[in-house]
Amino acid sequence: MKKTSIILFLSLIVSLSLAAKDNRQTISYTVDCIWKTDAYSSFTSLIKYRGRFYCSFREGESHIFDSQGRAEGKTRIIVSKDGKRWKSVYLGAREGYDLRDPKLSVTPDGRLMVIMGGSIYRNRELKGMVPHVVFSSDGEHFTEPRPVEFVDGDEHTSDWLWRITWHDGVGYVVGYGTTPAGERFLRLYSTRDGVRYDKITDLAVPDFPNETTVRFLPDGRMSMMVRRDAGDCRGYWGVSNKPFTEWKWHKMDLRLGGPDYIVSGDSIIAASRNYYLPHSTTTVYKGDFEGRLDEKVVLPSGGDNAYPGLIIEGNELWVSYYSQHEGGRPAIYLARIPMSMLQ
To answer: Which is more confidently placed, 258 or 180?
Structure first.
C-alpha cells in the first residue's frame, strides 16, 4: 500500500469513528492540489485580503540549489476568490539572493505585506542572510523586494525574520541567526512600517532556536512557539506581558518544523511538520494557552513537506502546505477542515 493510501485510510478511520459517536453525519475534510509545476514549490503562507485568498511560497529548482549550484529562489503569490481556482499575481526575485519562507500579513494601513528570508550563498556555502519585504496596496501590483532596516544599533549580517504579527498598530516578529562573532541568537523585534525594525529583547531559548510564530492571547499576553534543532529538539512555548521583555518558558511535548498557530476562542489551533510517524507529515493540532497540543488531523503528505499557513474561513479551518507525497517535486495543497472535527 502506498504511503498516501495509508494516510487516507487512517483519515477515513477518524471520520468513521466520529460518525459512530454522532449518527447524524460523517465529518470529513477535503484536500486540493492548488499549484503544481515543474518547479520545487515550498514554504507556504495563507491569508484573506480584500475578500480574496492569497497563498505565498518559494519557487526554485530544488530545496536550495539549482543545477548550476546557485541558490536564487523566487517568491510566488497566487490568489483565489473561492479557494478552488487559483492564478498567479506575483513572481518576485532578487539576483544573488535566495528568497525563502515568504509570510503574508496585512499592515495597519491596509497593505498586503510579504516578509521573507534572503539567503546569500557563495560556492554552496551560506555567507549571510538579509530579510526582505514586498508590499501591495491592491493585491495585484507589488513592489520590488527590498531589504529591511535594523535600527537597534547592532551589526546585522545573518538574520532571518520569520513571521510578523500585527497588534494595536505595531508589528512583532522574532528573528534568529548568528552574530558576527559566531554566536546564535533569538530576538524579538517591533516595527511600525514593515521596513524598519527595533529590538525589544533577546530571548533565552537554548539549543539552536529558529523558526518562531508570535500570536496574541485574548488577555493581551504575547505568546510564541519556537522550533529548536539541538538537544532534545522539543519546541518551546513562551508567554509574556507587555512590554514583552520578561518571558515564561516551558518545553513542549513534540518537535516542531515550520510551525504556525492561530488563536480561536479559548484554544489555539496549530500545524507543523510531525516527526513522530514513520515518515514526516503535515499535522494539525488543537491546544491550550499553555502550549499543550493534541493531534487532530494528519494531512496527506510525505517527503519534503509541511510549512503550513492557517486561516479560519466560516466554519472551516483552511491549511496551506507543500508536499511531494504524489511524486516528483513538491506541490502546494489546501486542506479545508470543518471546525467540528477539531473539537
So the answer is: 258
CA 188/CA 108 separation, integer angstroms: 19
Pairing assessment for the beta strands 209-216 and 146-147 based on DSSP bridges: unpaired
Residue labelled with grid coordinates 494539525: 284
- The Cα 149–Cα 90 span in angstroms is 23
Q: Is 8 exposed, middle or buried (0-12, 13-18, 19+ CB in 10 A)?
A: middle
Q: One-letter amino acid identity for 135?
A: F
Within a 13 Å sphere around the CA of 149, how many CA atoms are in the beta-carbon half? Answer: 5
233-249 pLDDT tens trace: 999 999 999 999 999 99
Residue whose C-alpha is closest to residue 105's, from 305, 311, 257: 311
Q: With a threshold of 0.90, does the pTM exceed it?
A: yes
Residue 181 and residue 194: Cα distance in Å, rounded? 27
Distances (CA, A) of 229 to 160, 183, 206, 234, 245: 16, 15, 10, 8, 24
Cell of 199: 529590538
Strands 149-150 and 196-202: parallel
Distance CA 123, CA 206 (A): 30
d(CA 51, CA 160): 30
Longest pairwise C-alpha distance within the chain: 63
Strand partners, 167: 170
8 Å CB contact between 273 and 329: no
d(CA 103, CA 194): 12
